[in-house]
Design goal:
Helices cover 30% and strands 33% of the residues. By secondary structure, it is α+β, with helices and mostly antiparallel strands. Strands 1-2-3-4-5-7-6 form a 7-stranded mixed sheet, sandwiched between helices.
């Protein structure tokens, strides 16, 4: 899959996210951001993510080109848990394994932060995202009927502990 890497979210990545959302629908925005943003997406809404102390934003790059973003949100150091949120790939790169690879990298970063349980939320009818999350070893642990009639799924991935030297134990 080439050189896929995660790095701290940059202003350049925010511009890419804006570009990927231009000309889309409120449903597209809600699919990847939940209720965090209002349609149409603006620079100011995205920029606020850089200032959120409860989230670590990452840009996903492939051989140096920005192809997505993801966040570790709601990091709870006491419970050693976090939530994956605002996970979006450039539509030109979906369905090719990059999402699963990005999630594997995000799981490694979460483990380095001491996270043992990683959650995410997805709409039940978002089949491509569900497949991606299942390939990355997330399992459905909850189901909720949302106010708009859609079904939301809560998914969990238990992460292995990381030893003091940063490696995974056998």
């Amino acid at each position: 899959l080439g050189m896929l890497e995660l790095a701290p979210l940059s202003r350049e990545a925010l511009q890419s996210v804006l570009d990927w959302n231009r000309g889309t629908s409120p449903q597209f925005l809600r699919q990847w951001s939940g209720w965090s943003f209002c349609y149409p997406l603006t620079w100011e809404q995205l920029e606020s993510r850089l200032e959120d102390a409860d989230a670590c934003g990452f840009q996903i790059t492939l051989s140096g080109k920005i192809i997505g973003m993801a966040e570790l949100m709601r990091i709870d150091r006491r419970e050693r848990s976090a939530t994956v949120g605002h996970f979006l790939l450039d539509p030109a790169y979906t369905g090719r394994g990059y999402g699963t690879c990005a999630l594997e990298n995000l799981k490694k970063l979460a483990m380095q932060l001491g996270v043992k349980r990683l959650y995410l939320h997805v709409f039940a009818d978002n089949r491509p995202a569900l497949r991606c999350y299942e390939k990355a070893n997330f399992a459905v642990v909850g189901r909720q009927l949302l106010s708009d009639g859609q079904t939301g799924l809560r998914m969990l991935c238990d992460l292995p502990a990381v030893s003091a030297d940063g490696s995974n134990p056998p």
